[in-house]
Automatic annotation (TrEMBL):
Signal peptide range: 1-28
Keywords of this entry: Signal
Protein name: PBP domain-containing protein
SUPFAM superfamilies per the UniProt record, alphabetical: Periplasmic binding protein-like II
Amino acid sequence: MISKKAIALCATVGVAISGFAIATPAMADPVSNSYSIVGSDTLEDAVSALANGTGIGGSNVRATTAKSASIASFDATGSPYISTKSYGVRFGRPNGSGDGVKALSRSIDGAGYTSKAVGSPVNVVISDSVDIARSSSGGTFNAAGELLYVPFGRDAIAYAYKGAAAGLGTITASQMKSLYECSPGFQIGGVTITPIIPQDGSGTRKDFLANIGSSETGMKTVSEGGCVVEGQEHDATTLTAESVMPMAVSRWIAMNTGASYDKRGTGTIGSLVPNVDSPITGSGALMAPNPSYYADATWGRDTYLVVENARVDPTNVKYDPTLFALLDPTQGTSLTNAQTLVTKTGAAKKKYGFLAPTTGVVPFRVAKTA
């Protein structure tokens, strides 16, 4: 257990907590009688596996809460709307890290929430409907922030590609910048390449653009008269002849190990880290993260589970000890545990392509999303 004294020492940067659960991808939306989780596509299969229970790491493991309580982790895609609690309202499905954190923020403050999902309800009051948001990217530290970002696991960004153009598998970050900003006459190996970007609100989209030195303003989508096609993140079946798209390495690994639905199509994964040939090691069920790639300061990234800080702060009247335990990394079957013994959730996480968070990275507070 993490002592209350230890938590108090971390009060200025957030409560030091974390958790871990295991499950297989759900075929239909769940309804929770305890906690509901929404947000990032990158983390969805790993978190759902931990919540439902899985043996993919070598031993049956499941994140637990109170007796008979179930954790509901909702996919980023599916029907335009979801209902997370038996007593709750229907609201737009949060698709991506940004949308998930926004939904958590509206669940806390009671303001109207509108999802980016096409056809979803508009301006719905969703108080107490979301307990945790999955996020593949971090936020800006704010000592008084209402949210707490708790490290989940280390991931990395690479790219998936399809085609035979010379150099398509060894594109540099600067070339990616030119490609995604539709520079006149820019080609790879003399061939015009179609750049594909994840949907708006994706953490992978946000991090990828920042890492290649571009931005939402610099990138030009087809709808803006540019060349960049928007599509659902991590779905490499949408790659067309001579095309590229950002890809979370964790998702690519999970699709190879059998942990996640296979959306590789006929794509291949490429490296963006100089002098590191591949972001992965091994193949098939034995595929695993390449530690050298994940350690890169630019393309490696820590991922997070986001929660209302007050609910995991023992000094606050809203403190929920069960939710705290679910996010406590010292607990072997919490959502954020990183130990790789087969009886711990970290072993299952590795099959989903996640390594332990970077040493020294601790929970930190962030302001609610507007």
